[in-house]
Design a protein that fits this description.
Helix content is 43%, strand content 24%. Strand 28 (777-783), helix 27 and strand 29 form a beta-alpha-beta unit. Helix 1 packs antiparallel against helix 2, helix 20 (616-633) crosses helix 21 (675-684) and helix 22 (688-708) packs parallel to helix 24.
């Protein structure tokens, strides 16, 4: 039970505020923080100058343009003198000396004289400053506020003031802040004075108390009944690990060391105002958190109203006396209360006592066990011989411990962990044996379960990665020269979608159903394992060739195409598989799993719901990834990236109408690296947003340079990656770039990939709509390679569709591509969208696209992507041709 004081902030009265300008929440929070900080300083008994200095600085921080200071009233001269002024120049401090309180004694003198706040917003016309205008000129101030401070008897003891270089009337929150500061200063000063007066008397009494055995203390109680120590002798530290200074500061530092039940016993003696001196035995914890017994003798003093005024106490440490008695009681309690079985035998191994736990463990009553030997628990002759050997060892070396199998009264055998210790008399002869026994049946079962869990997946109960590798390695180690095996890695497609939309519980159910279906699909010779997340693995011990493994992969793919029931709804998922063969693709489990996983990623990148066999060149691509990734992380800071530009021309006039910004990487040793090699790495390691934003900034800056150079206006098209849209901040970046560059907003075109929009439509649509509201154009890139949903063309704020080069490449040889391109152009125009064809490389393609009214052309026929310098030459050539 802890005695606590009310929170001090509640003592501070609420200052009046005008109803038409209430402080906002932020202002009130700042004021509350001021109270908390300064009350914390006061509670810590910091030096009074430090506290006043801190209050003044806090006020200056809260009230802009203020110079805060504190003046104190001298008890003999009755004059006000400066106590604290952190921001007022030291050369001006004499101006604040010897101010006599009166009705015209500036702000602080008037506040102390009138015992009320003073706000002088125009010093030049304020009568309270009529005789001090010269001082105002020296200080260069135009307004002054002050609030009186009060001593413990609520008499004015000084003032806190604020000066301003301009005329200023306080707002409600500023007036309240000054009032709060005055109360905080008053509290700090009163505590300082009280502490100073008490210190002298305490020192005199402490010398007397130090000579008295034990601890002498006096506890006093406020009118509200809150206790505090008015005297504590130095012996308190040895008793409970709290110094007398700590006890003075915090009554609870000692009181909390008294257990709650002992506190209640003490409280009972304090309930009767007529009680005479009393004593009680109670406990306290020392500095090492060890309990000590103390004899508390107390003499109470009562107020006239019947409330307790003080308690004069002497505490004597009686721990040693109590310890001997407690040890005897504790031994008996422990013997009967412990959950472990305890048996005591004599030197002949006959049982002389047994506790309740041992009786419950064996099924025998205490009476049935007395005068018996542990042979009673033996299940056979061999067990009896083992017990004899155990006690012989314990008699020889003094102890034994180990596991034995015993028999209960009902005949059931059980494992028991037993500790035996010999007890010796003064002549070092064995007098007794103490046996501590524990039934470890549950532990044995838990160990078996743990061994199973160590090697099996907790959700599906399939072998885990650890056991799967052991099984594969065991088969490989014992395989014949002609034996062939296969490892198939399985990854569920769209499993993340299940977790995100239906929750992890439904995701777990899907994994359980998948495991069951795979078990039903495979024969008994195949080993199925779950190796993590949504990944499963199959090991086929006898697999003569790839065709056999391929057959199993096809069975798995087919099995996954049937629906799963999740939460009362039908759900479809598919699986992608990677296959590696032994010995063709590896000679151990680690290599086979790694290569099968590589093939799995190849299958997923090929469109999912497929299987692929490991090819050595896949490892080369991975090694290339590993080689490029470290350099790629530093490429931006090392200025290795460069933006190239590929022109887009008007299909009818042949004039430039746009240019697409394309990222290139100049590797310091490998030269120019294809975007197809490093863009996927950027996306995978999370740098696409940062690099993509850099490309956007460079493109906008270059567009401004071309415009200032006098080149014809044309749009700059910049590819925007999915992470840029989804990560947030893209709209703000575009808006800032347009504002800084003054680029015509319609001349910036952002290209988005169709597949990304399809996958993240809900998240992407609001971002694209905000971009369109800025005035920039949105183009749908690579149209025709993904879902090509007409609904998304209507829903998204796009102005242009770009026909993917894969649909242009075989024009005019492939009539299907011609039909698709013709349909895309017609559809886009019907929706008021312009069309740009990518990958135009022949005049035949150009002629076809012109006939179909395609708006823009882009490709090698017009120009390859160029550096800025090359693009400048190309633009100049176009101007020359036009002339």
């Amino acid at each position: 039970m802890e005695v606590t004081e009310d929170q001090v902030p509640s003592w501070l009265p609420e200052p009046s505020r005008s109803s038409d300008s209430q402080p906002n929440v932020q202002e009130l929070n700042r004021l509350l923080q001021l109270q908390r900080d300064q009350l914390g300083n006061i509670t810590q008994n910091l030096p009074i100058k430090t506290i006043l200095h801190s209050i003044c600085q806090d006020i200056e921080a809260l009230i802009a343009g203020s110079y805060c200071y504190v003046m104190l009233l001298h008890p003999l001269t009755g004059q006000l003198n400066l106590k604290c002024a952190p921001s007022i120049d030291s050369s001006h401090r004499e101006l604040f000396r010897g101010v006599i309180p009166g009705p015209k004694s500036r702000a602080c003198g008037t506040a102390v004289f009138a015992d009320q706040p003073v706000f002088c917003s125009h010093l030049r016309t304020d009568p309270r400053w009529k005789d001090s205008l010269a001082i105002a000129d020296i200080l260069a101030v135009e307004s002054a506020w002050a609030y009186p401070l009060h001593d413990a008897n609520q008499h004015p003891s000084g003032a806190i003031g604020i000066l301003f270089e301009t005329s200023k009337q306080p707002s409600p929150i500023e007036a309240r802040t000054l009032e709060t500061a005055a109360y905080l200063c008053s509290i700090a000063l009163n505590q300082h004075i009280s502490s100073r007066d008490l210190k002298a008397s305490e020192q005199r009494f402490s010398h007397v108390a130090a000579s008295i055995p034990g601890v002498v203390l006096q506890a006093e109680f406020t009118p509200k009944g809150l206790p505090y120590f008015s005297f504590v002798s130095s012996g308190i530290e040895a008793l409970c690990g709290v110094t007398s200074d700590e006890a003075y500061r915090n009554f609870n530092s000692v009181w909390k060391r008294v257990p709650q039940e002992d506190q209640q016993r003490i409280f009972k003696h304090l309930e009767n105002p007529a009680s005479a001196p009393w004593s009680v035995e109670c406990r306290v914890t020392d500095g090492n958190d060890q309990l000590k017994w103390v004899h508390l003798a107390a003499t109470p003093e009562w107020r006239q109203n019947g409330k307790l005024h003080s308690l004069n106490c002497i505490l004597l440490d009686i721990s040693r006396e109590k310890e001997a008695h407690a040890q005897l009681e504790l031994a008996g309690i422990a013997f009967q209360s412990t959950t472990e079985g305890i048996v005591v035998t004599d030197h002949l191994c006959q049982i002389v006592d047994a506790n309740r736990a041992f009786c419950e463990m064996t099924g025998y009553s205490r009476a049935e066990l007395l005068r018996e030997t542990p042979h009673l628990l033996s299940s056979n002759t061999a067990s009896k011989q083992q017990i004899d050997a155990i006690f012989k060892h314990a008699r020889s070396v003094g102890h034994w411990q180990g596991e034995v199998w015993h028999r209960r009264k009902n005949g059931a055998s059980y494992p028991q962990w037993m500790n035996i210790n010999a007890v010796y008399n003064a002549q070092q002869a064995v007098t007794h044996f103490v046996i501590v026994a524990a039934d470890v049946t549950d532990i044995k079962e838990s160990e078996a379960k743990l061994r199973h869990l160590t090697h099996h997946d907790a959700l599906t109960d399939l072998p885990n990665r650890k056991l799967f590798k052991k099984l594969v390695d065991h088969v490989i180690d014992t395989a014949s020269d002609a034996q062939h095996c296969a490892v198939l890695m399985i990854d569920l497609d769209r499993f993340k979608h299940v977790n995100e939309t239906m929750g992890h519980q439904e995701g777990d159910q899907l994994l359980i159903q998948v495991a069951r279906r795979l078990q039903e699909t495979l024969d008994d010779t195949a080993i199925l394992a779950r190796i993590g997340g949504d990944e499963f693995a199959i090991f086929v011990e006898q697999c003569a060739h790839f065709g056999a493994a391929e057959k199993i992969a096809m069975q798995v793919v087919d099995a996954m195409e049937y629906t799963f029931e999740l939460g009362g709804r039908s759900f479809f998922t598919t699986a992608s598989l990677g296959i590696s063969l032994f010995p063709e693709h590896g000679f151990d489990s680690e290599t086979l799993i790694k290569n099968a996983d590589t093939a799995l990623h190849q299958a997923k990148s090929g469109g999912r719901n497929k299987y692929a066999c490991y090819q050595p060149e896949q490892t080369e691509r991975i090694e290339q990834w590993v080689r490029l990734e470290p350099a790629l992380r530093n490429a931006l800071e090392s200025e290795q990236f460069e933006v190239y530009y590929q022109p887009q021309i008007d299909a009818l006039t042949g004039k430039i109408s746009g240019a697409e910004a394309l990222l290139r990487w100049n590797h310091p040793t490998e030269g120019l690296i294809s975007p197809g090699q490093f863009i996927p790495i950027l996306e995978e390691i999370g740098l696409m947003t940062r690099v993509g934003n850099w490309v956007l900034e460079q493109a906008v800056k270059q567009a401004l340079v071309w415009r200032q150079s006098g080149f014809p206006n044309f749009r700059i098209a910049v590819n925007i990656a999915g992470p840029q849209i989804l990560s947030g901040g893209l709209v703000e970046l575009v808006e800032r770039l347009l504002k800084d560059s003054h680029l015509t907003r319609d001349l910036l075109e952002l290209e988005i990939v169709e597949t990304m929009v399809m996958q993240h439509a809900n998240a992407a649509q609001p971002v694209l709509q905000r971009l369109r509201e800025l005035g920039v154009r949105i183009a749908l890139d690579d149209f025709g390679t993904g879902y090509s949903s007409l609904s998304y063309l209507k829903m998204l704020p796009v102005q242009k569709v770009k026909i993917d080069q894969s649909l242009v490449r075989d024009i005019p040889e492939d009539p299907n591509d011609e039909a698709i391109a013709r349909a895309v152009i017609a559809l886009s125009h019907s929706l008021n969208l312009s069309v740009c064809a990518e990958g135009v490389e022949t005049y035949e393609q150009q002629a076809f696209l012109r006939r179909e009214n395609c708006d823009q052309l882009q490709g090698y026929l017009i120009s390859r992507p160029m550096s800025v310098a090359q693009m400048n030459l190309w633009l100049q050539q176009q101007i020359s041709i036009a002339l």
